[in-house]
Amino acid sequence: MTADPLIERLAGAVADTAEPVREEDRRALARLLPLIEERATAERITFGDDRRLALAVHTLAFVRRVRAGEHLDALDPQLADEVGPGRLAAARELIDAYCTPRGFVAGDTEVLLLALHFETARQLQDTAPEHTAATAAQRTQA
After folding, report:
1. Which of 27, 84, 125, 136 has the most CB atoms within 10 Å of its CB?
2. Non-local CB neighbours of 21 within 8 Å, separated by 6+ positions
3. What's the DSSP call for residue 2?
């Protein structure tokens, strides 16, 4: 298996913790992270380096919860107001694509957390100076 730079960066970031990245984590991440990146590309969302690492940390914790059969407690339902239903549906598809073959049903909290990663990345992307300038240029041409 070719080393994924993001997984290697994640492994380095958590190397000195009580739970370093193990081979089974690497295999799970190698399955799920490309699905997430494909979805981001389809939605034209770019994750900056820091956001990618934050997403990888979350994904590592998620794949470990799936493997252990653990579920997160419910979050405040109002957090779902921060993301649109389409984004929640897309996050559910990703979560289910990973979980279903493993016989695991992830709760809504997992879906919401992944959707919030996408929503945050989109908001950061929309407020980035280069995006704001490109949007202004498009409006001027219209």
Report:
1. 125
2. 7, 10, 11, 14, 15, 29, 60
3. P
Q: What is the pTM of this model?
A: 0.86
Contact present, 94 and 88 (Cβ < 8 Å): no
DSSP designation for 101: G
DSSP state of 1: -
Q: Across the 142 residues of the chain, what is the mean pLDDT of every consecutive 10-residue run?
A: 86 95 97 95 93 96 98 92 90 96 96 95 85 48 52
Q: What is the pLDDT of residue 77?
A: 86
Rounded CA-CA distance 19/110 in Å is 20
Taking the CA atoms of 13, 17, 23 and 25 in sequence, report the sign of the dihedral they define.
negative
- What pLDDT is recorded for position 42? 94
Tell me the DSSP string of 40-78.
Answer: HHHTT----HHHHHHHHHHHHHHHHHHHHT--PPPPPGG
Residue 57 near residue 114 (C-beta atoms within 8 A): no
